[in-house]
């Protein structure tokens, strides 16, 4: 009875095979583990009459040895077939799997293009802190004591008395340049600025600005006009027209708003330019003599012009982006459209 069962198991073991790790594990569970058929033969020992135990034990040990020998054989077989298939799976002639190359953010691309245009005509780059004191953000720039920008609802103040705030423009960087350098000064200050505004399609509390400053002897309004005309043609195309509208800033006198002919309709009038044919790209003016003096520059000898533009605004006009919020949402469907830019 036992003899028959043991012979049957021996035959099974002799026939057993495994072609992969799963089949090998199935064999181990069936013939090696405690709960295997061989394990069961050992467990049955307690029901064998004492005088037969010796002979039975000998038979079961033979089966156990057989099962283990077979197991070693199968391990070697599975291992060698695995290493064989590994080396054949590697096909060096296949094209590489998709490499996901990112792109430059449209604001970065726009900033780089603006920098490139001004660097070519002799402007260098300047940077400064995003957290500013009252002097560099307001007072040196000729802001009167009661100016609305100094109010809590327009500016993010970190401390009051003495006032410390997130800079509201990068003019503060240019004040620092004038304090530390002698004319001639030709500098461009791109950077992040902060204003306490409700977020909408047209406004954000964080945006990017680039300001330019040129201070030397005999710098006049014609230099301002020609420099910005050159910029507009380089940025938007050589057919672009520029117009200056009288305006007011505390830090420039006279001051002018800079408009370019509408990119979409070419000046005929459409919904982007609200039928006027012109769109605003920034502000400009001759540096107020008070500002030069505040920064230690002799306003009798030196004059200068300055301008400021929103980088978001330039990018929106150049790429026909309708909503400011797209720049910060990081929706890949938006960003992917600029993937080719470097
Ligand atoms: C705008 C207007 C402007 C300036 C910025 C400036 C800087 C110094 C002295 C005088 Cl240190 N002016 N910058 C001048 C006129 C306009 O920005 O619409 N920005 C987005």
UniProtKB/TrEMBL annotation:
EC top class, as a word: ligase
Gene name tied to this protein: pheS
Gene Ontology CC annotation, any one: cytoplasm
Boundaries of every Aminoacyl-transfer RNA synthetases class-II family profile domain copy: 119-337
Organism lineage string: Bacteria, Pseudomonadati, Bacteroidota, Cytophagia, Cytophagales
Pfam family membership, one: tRNA-synt_2d
Protein name: Phenylalanine--tRNA ligase alpha subunit
GO terms of molecular function: ATP binding; magnesium ion binding; phenylalanine-tRNA ligase activity; tRNA binding
Keywords: Aminoacyl-tRNA synthetase, ATP-binding, Cytoplasm, Ligase, Magnesium, Metal-binding, Nucleotide-binding, Protein biosynthesis
Assembly mode: Tetramer of two alpha and two beta subunits.
Localization (cell): Cytoplasm
Cofactor note: Binds 2 magnesium ions per tetramer.
